[in-house]
Design a protein that fits this description.
Length: about 250
Protein backbone atom coordinates (compact mmCIF):
# COMPACT_ATOMS: atom_id res chain seq x y z
CA UNK A 1 0.00 0.00 0.00
CA UNK A 2 1.10 3.53 -0.75
CA UNK A 3 0.39 6.76 1.18
CA UNK A 4 0.47 10.31 -0.09
CA UNK A 5 1.19 12.93 2.59
CA UNK A 6 2.13 16.61 2.51
CA UNK A 7 4.56 18.53 4.72
CA UNK A 8 3.52 21.22 7.21
CA UNK A 9 3.84 24.89 6.14
CA UNK A 10 4.62 27.75 8.58
CA UNK A 11 1.24 29.12 7.50
CA UNK A 12 -0.51 26.25 9.35
CA UNK A 13 -1.16 28.86 12.06
CA UNK A 14 -3.72 30.37 9.66
CA UNK A 15 -5.52 27.11 8.84
CA UNK A 16 -9.30 26.83 8.64
CA UNK A 17 -10.88 26.61 12.10
CA UNK A 18 -14.49 26.54 13.20
CA UNK A 19 -13.35 27.50 16.71
CA UNK A 20 -11.32 30.70 16.60
CA UNK A 21 -11.00 31.23 20.35
CA UNK A 22 -7.83 29.27 20.98
CA UNK A 23 -4.09 29.72 21.47
CA UNK A 24 -1.96 29.89 18.30
CA UNK A 25 -0.81 26.59 16.84
CA UNK A 26 2.76 25.41 17.44
CA UNK A 27 4.09 24.60 13.96
CA UNK A 28 7.22 22.95 15.35
CA UNK A 29 5.07 20.56 17.40
CA UNK A 30 2.90 19.84 14.34
CA UNK A 31 6.03 19.05 12.29
CA UNK A 32 7.27 16.63 14.95
CA UNK A 33 3.87 14.94 14.97
CA UNK A 34 3.92 14.76 11.17
CA UNK A 35 7.32 13.05 11.25
CA UNK A 36 5.98 10.56 13.80
CA UNK A 37 2.94 9.92 11.62
CA UNK A 38 5.07 9.27 8.53
CA UNK A 39 7.29 6.94 10.59
CA UNK A 40 4.21 5.04 11.78
CA UNK A 41 3.04 4.59 8.18
CA UNK A 42 6.48 3.37 7.09
CA UNK A 43 6.68 1.03 10.09
CA UNK A 44 3.42 -0.49 8.84
CA UNK A 45 5.13 -1.18 5.50
CA UNK A 46 3.57 1.63 3.45
CA UNK A 47 5.44 3.37 0.64
CA UNK A 48 5.08 7.01 1.71
CA UNK A 49 5.35 9.86 -0.81
CA UNK A 50 5.81 13.26 0.84
CA UNK A 51 4.70 16.29 -1.18
CA UNK A 52 6.31 19.63 -0.31
CA UNK A 53 4.40 22.10 1.85
CA UNK A 54 2.70 25.04 0.17
CA UNK A 55 2.86 28.24 2.22
CA UNK A 56 -0.07 29.69 0.28
CA UNK A 57 -2.28 26.88 1.56
CA UNK A 58 -2.24 26.51 5.36
CA UNK A 59 -4.38 23.34 5.33
CA UNK A 60 -2.27 21.56 2.70
CA UNK A 61 -1.11 18.72 5.05
CA UNK A 62 -4.72 17.53 5.19
CA UNK A 63 -4.47 15.79 1.80
CA UNK A 64 -7.34 13.42 2.47
CA UNK A 65 -9.82 16.22 1.80
CA UNK A 66 -8.52 16.78 -1.72
CA UNK A 67 -8.55 13.30 -3.23
CA UNK A 68 -10.33 10.01 -2.91
CA UNK A 69 -9.49 6.50 -4.03
CA UNK A 70 -12.51 4.20 -4.42
CA UNK A 71 -12.15 0.68 -5.81
CA UNK A 72 -8.78 1.65 -7.27
CA UNK A 73 -10.19 4.73 -8.98
CA UNK A 74 -8.62 8.12 -8.14
CA UNK A 75 -10.92 11.12 -7.86
CA UNK A 76 -9.83 14.72 -7.41
CA UNK A 77 -12.30 16.49 -5.12
CA UNK A 78 -13.25 20.12 -4.57
CA UNK A 79 -12.67 20.91 -0.88
CA UNK A 80 -15.60 22.73 0.69
CA UNK A 81 -13.51 25.57 2.14
CA UNK A 82 -12.73 28.02 -0.71
CA UNK A 83 -9.27 28.70 0.81
CA UNK A 84 -8.39 25.05 0.18
CA UNK A 85 -9.13 24.78 -3.55
CA UNK A 86 -5.54 25.69 -4.50
CA UNK A 87 -4.30 22.57 -2.71
CA UNK A 88 -5.50 20.48 -5.63
CA UNK A 89 -2.78 21.16 -8.23
CA UNK A 90 0.07 19.33 -6.48
CA UNK A 91 -2.16 16.44 -5.40
CA UNK A 92 -3.60 16.17 -8.93
CA UNK A 93 -0.09 15.83 -10.35
CA UNK A 94 0.82 13.12 -7.82
CA UNK A 95 -2.37 11.16 -8.43
CA UNK A 96 -2.62 11.35 -12.21
CA UNK A 97 -4.60 9.97 -13.96
CA UNK A 98 -7.75 10.75 -12.06
CA UNK A 99 -11.39 11.64 -12.45
CA UNK A 100 -12.07 15.29 -11.61
CA UNK A 101 -15.14 16.44 -9.70
CA UNK A 102 -16.89 19.21 -11.68
CA UNK A 103 -16.44 22.78 -10.44
CA UNK A 104 -19.39 24.07 -8.45
CA UNK A 105 -19.65 20.91 -6.36
CA UNK A 106 -17.84 20.57 -3.03
CA UNK A 107 -16.89 17.50 -1.09
CA UNK A 108 -14.11 16.89 1.48
CA UNK A 109 -12.51 13.45 1.59
CA UNK A 110 -12.84 13.60 5.37
CA UNK A 111 -16.55 13.04 4.79
CA UNK A 112 -16.01 9.74 2.95
CA UNK A 113 -15.95 6.49 4.90
CA UNK A 114 -15.41 3.20 3.06
CA UNK A 115 -16.31 -0.14 4.60
CA UNK A 116 -17.31 -3.54 3.23
CA UNK A 117 -17.50 -2.33 -0.37
CA UNK A 118 -19.81 0.52 0.56
CA UNK A 119 -19.17 4.26 0.57
CA UNK A 120 -20.75 6.46 3.25
CA UNK A 121 -20.57 10.21 2.67
CA UNK A 122 -21.26 12.89 5.27
CA UNK A 123 -23.63 15.73 4.54
CA UNK A 124 -21.60 18.40 6.31
CA UNK A 125 -20.74 22.08 6.08
CA UNK A 126 -18.04 21.02 3.58
CA UNK A 127 -19.84 18.42 1.45
CA UNK A 128 -23.01 19.18 -0.48
CA UNK A 129 -25.88 16.89 -1.41
CA UNK A 130 -25.24 17.64 -5.10
CA UNK A 131 -21.61 16.53 -4.79
CA UNK A 132 -22.69 13.33 -3.05
CA UNK A 133 -25.16 12.65 -5.88
CA UNK A 134 -22.38 13.21 -8.44
CA UNK A 135 -20.10 10.78 -6.61
CA UNK A 136 -22.86 8.17 -6.42
CA UNK A 137 -23.27 8.36 -10.21
CA UNK A 138 -19.51 8.33 -10.84
CA UNK A 139 -18.52 5.19 -8.94
CA UNK A 140 -19.74 1.59 -8.83
CA UNK A 141 -19.89 0.96 -5.04
CA UNK A 142 -23.18 2.06 -3.45
CA UNK A 143 -23.10 5.49 -1.82
CA UNK A 144 -25.08 6.24 1.36
CA UNK A 145 -25.40 9.83 2.67
CA UNK A 146 -25.03 10.36 6.43
CA UNK A 147 -26.02 13.45 8.40
CA UNK A 148 -23.05 14.95 10.21
CA UNK A 149 -24.27 16.56 13.45
CA UNK A 150 -21.66 17.99 15.79
CA UNK A 151 -18.29 17.43 14.10
CA UNK A 152 -16.46 18.88 11.09
CA UNK A 153 -16.28 15.73 9.00
CA UNK A 154 -18.01 12.34 8.99
CA UNK A 155 -14.75 10.61 9.91
CA UNK A 156 -14.18 12.97 12.83
CA UNK A 157 -17.04 11.09 14.45
CA UNK A 158 -16.94 7.56 13.04
CA UNK A 159 -14.32 5.31 11.40
CA UNK A 160 -14.02 1.66 10.40
CA UNK A 161 -12.07 -0.77 12.57
CA UNK A 162 -12.58 -3.69 10.19
CA UNK A 163 -15.18 -4.71 7.59
CA UNK A 164 -17.96 -5.16 10.18
CA UNK A 165 -17.20 -2.75 13.00
CA UNK A 166 -17.01 1.01 13.47
CA UNK A 167 -15.75 3.20 16.30
CA UNK A 168 -18.27 5.96 16.92
CA UNK A 169 -18.46 9.10 19.00
CA UNK A 170 -22.05 9.06 20.24
CA UNK A 171 -24.16 11.94 18.89
CA UNK A 172 -21.56 13.14 16.38
CA UNK A 173 -23.23 11.71 13.27
CA UNK A 174 -26.49 9.94 12.48
CA UNK A 175 -25.91 6.24 13.27
CA UNK A 176 -29.00 4.99 11.37
CA UNK A 177 -27.24 4.44 8.00
CA UNK A 178 -24.83 2.04 9.74
CA UNK A 179 -27.52 -0.42 10.87
CA UNK A 180 -25.74 -3.31 9.09
CA UNK A 181 -22.62 -2.84 11.23
CA UNK A 182 -21.58 -3.06 14.86
CA UNK A 183 -20.94 0.36 16.39
CA UNK A 184 -18.55 0.61 19.33
CA UNK A 185 -18.95 3.87 21.26
CA UNK A 186 -15.88 5.75 22.39
CA UNK A 187 -15.54 5.63 26.20
CA UNK A 188 -16.67 8.68 28.24
CA UNK A 189 -14.44 11.71 27.75
CA UNK A 190 -12.72 10.19 24.70
CA UNK A 191 -14.98 11.19 21.80
CA UNK A 192 -12.00 12.62 19.92
CA UNK A 193 -10.56 9.09 19.66
CA UNK A 194 -13.15 8.12 17.03
CA UNK A 195 -10.92 9.12 14.12
CA UNK A 196 -8.86 5.93 13.68
CA UNK A 197 -6.65 5.22 10.65
CA UNK A 198 -7.11 1.64 9.49
CA UNK A 199 -3.99 0.15 7.90
CA UNK A 200 -3.68 -3.39 6.48
CA UNK A 201 -2.35 -4.95 9.70
CA UNK A 202 -3.02 -2.39 12.44
CA UNK A 203 -5.00 0.61 13.59
CA UNK A 204 -3.46 3.98 14.34
CA UNK A 205 -5.21 5.71 17.22
CA UNK A 206 -4.66 9.24 18.54
CA UNK A 207 -2.41 9.25 21.59
CA UNK A 208 -3.96 10.28 24.91
CA UNK A 209 -7.05 8.06 24.90
CA UNK A 210 -6.13 5.21 27.26
CA UNK A 211 -9.64 3.80 27.68
CA UNK A 212 -10.16 3.57 23.91
CA UNK A 213 -6.72 2.01 23.47
CA UNK A 214 -7.53 -0.61 26.12
CA UNK A 215 -10.98 -1.25 24.63
CA UNK A 216 -9.57 -1.82 21.13
CA UNK A 217 -6.76 -4.06 22.37
CA UNK A 218 -9.18 -6.10 24.50
CA UNK A 219 -11.21 -6.68 21.36
CA UNK A 220 -8.14 -8.03 19.59
CA UNK A 221 -7.15 -5.06 17.46
CA UNK A 222 -3.49 -4.18 17.02
CA UNK A 223 -4.01 -0.51 17.95
CA UNK A 224 -0.98 1.79 18.08
CA UNK A 225 -1.13 5.29 19.57
CA UNK A 226 0.28 8.17 17.51
CA UNK A 227 0.82 11.68 18.92
CA UNK A 228 -1.43 14.10 17.09
CA UNK A 229 -2.59 16.64 19.68
CA UNK A 230 -1.36 19.71 17.78
CA UNK A 231 -3.14 18.60 14.60
CA UNK A 232 -6.29 18.04 16.65
CA UNK A 233 -6.08 21.75 17.58
CA UNK A 234 -5.95 22.43 13.82
CA UNK A 235 -9.21 20.44 13.53
CA UNK A 236 -7.47 17.58 11.78
CA UNK A 237 -7.12 13.90 12.57
CA UNK A 238 -5.17 10.79 11.64
CA UNK A 239 -7.16 10.07 8.50
CA UNK A 240 -6.85 13.70 7.28
CA UNK A 241 -3.10 13.47 6.92
CA UNK A 242 -2.87 10.89 4.13
CA UNK A 243 -4.44 9.47 1.01
CA UNK A 244 -4.02 5.69 0.96
CA UNK A 245 -3.67 3.92 -2.39
CA UNK A 246 -3.13 0.32 -3.41
CA UNK A 247 0.37 -0.66 -4.60
CA UNK A 248 3.74 1.12 -4.62
CA UNK A 249 4.90 4.02 -6.72
N1 LIG B 1 -8.30 22.76 9.49
C1 LIG B 1 -8.86 21.64 8.86
C2 LIG B 1 -9.95 22.03 7.95
O1 LIG B 1 -10.70 22.90 8.29
O2 LIG B 1 -10.10 21.53 6.86
Amino acid sequence: MRALVRSVPDSLVRCELTCIDRAPLDVGAARREHAGYVAALREAGLDVQVLPADEDHPDCPFVEDVALVVAGRRILLNPGAPSRRGERAAVAAALSPHLRMPEGLSLDGGDVLQIAGRVFVGRSTRSSAAAIAWLAAAIDPPVTPVDVRTVLHLKTGITALDERTLLWSSGSVDPAPFDDFELIATPPGESAAANVLRLPDRLLLSDGFPSTLQLLRERGYDARPVAIAEFARAEAGLTCLSVLLPGDR
